Amino acid sequence: MAKRQVFYSFHYDNDVFRVQQIRNIGALEDNKPVSANDWETVKKGGETSIKKWIDENLNYKSCVVVLVGSETSDRKWVNYEISKAWNDGRAILGIYIHNLKCPNTGKSKQGTNPFDKFQMKNGTKLSSVVKCYNPDSNDAYNDIATNLENWIEDAIKNR
């Protein structure tokens, strides 16, 4: 299977260590996350700068993978990324990451499905067509590692 170009959407402050674990699986294109310093520079440019950065980084991506932590669904820019990706016709999926251990905080509580906040033009919730996977609580990392490529391919086919 060809490696896909994927955009990861997540709450940086809460979940960066969990996200790094997923990025290190190696099944996908090597796309490094923005560093905390780089993100601060982007944020200093205001909303226009942030939207431009997101829009540029979404270009040429096959799929947006929303890594759902305890507060992800409440993040303004995650919601912008979901909306932008869906409206641009990109495949989207979610993965709950609360059972991945963070070296600072351990496991966290499960967040809410961010796709519940969006309605399609026909009134159907986006969560009824976009899957949000909840990996095995006993071995979340290996469940994600085993299934990530297939989940992405399924999202692309279903889109």
Q: Describe it for me?
A:
This protein has 159 residues and is α/β, with parallel strands linked by helices. The chain has a single domain (6-158), classed as Rossmann fold (3-Layer(aba) Sandwich). Helices cover 41% and strands 11% of the residues. It contains five helices and four strands, in the order E-H-H-H-E-H-E-E-H. The chain has helices at residues 12-23, 36-44, 46-58, 76-87, 140-158; strands at 6-9, 63-68, 91-96, 132-133. Helix 3 crosses helix 4 (76-87). The longest helix has 19 residues, at 140-158. The model has no long low-confidence stretch (mean pLDDT 88).
Outline of this structure?
The chain contains 5 helices and 4 strands.
What's the domain count?
1
Sequence of secondary-structure elements = EHHHEHEEH
Distance between the termini: 18 Å
Oligomer: single chain
> What is the general shape?
globular
The CATH class assignment is Alpha Beta
Query: What ranges have pLDDT less than 50 throughout 5 or more consecutive residues?
Result: none
Structural class: alpha/beta
CATH-level-2 architecture: 3-Layer(aba) Sandwich
The Cα radius of gyration reads: 15 Å
Helical fraction = 40-55%
Q: Count every beta strand, where a strand is a DSSP E run of 2 or more residues.
A: 4
Main beta-sheet strand count, sense and barrel state: 4 strands, parallel
- What is the arithmetic mean of pLDDT? 88
Number of helices: 5
In the CATH hierarchy, the third-tier topology is known as Rossmann fold
Spatial order of the strands in the main sheet?
Answer: 1-2-3-4
Please state roughly what percent of the residues sit in beta strands, choosing from under 5%, 5-15%, 15-25%, 25-35%, 35-45% or over 45%.
Answer: 5-15%
Protein name: Molecular chaperone Tir
InterPro entries: ThsB__TIR-like_domain, ThsB_TIR-like_sf
Organism: Flavobacterium amnicola
Domain Thoeris protein ThsB TIR-like: 7-101
